[in-house]
Amino acid sequence: xxxQDKINYYWKSFVGLLDFVDLVKDQPTLKAKLKTKILDLAHxxxxxxxxxxx
Length: 54
Hints:
- Helices cover 83% and strands 0% of the residues.
- It has two helices and no strands.
- It has helices at residues 3-21, 28-53.
- Helix 1 (3-21) packs antiparallel against helix 2 (28-53).
């Protein structure tokens, strides 16, 4: 898989997860925690992909 393909795949996956979390309506704290965890993971994956390029 090319690097750009990997990036696109991961991006779509994380966006899908964030959209899924938006379905949580009655628990704003849970929703915020889940979004934070997903964004943290997305950042870690981005760093790993950048490290692979080096």
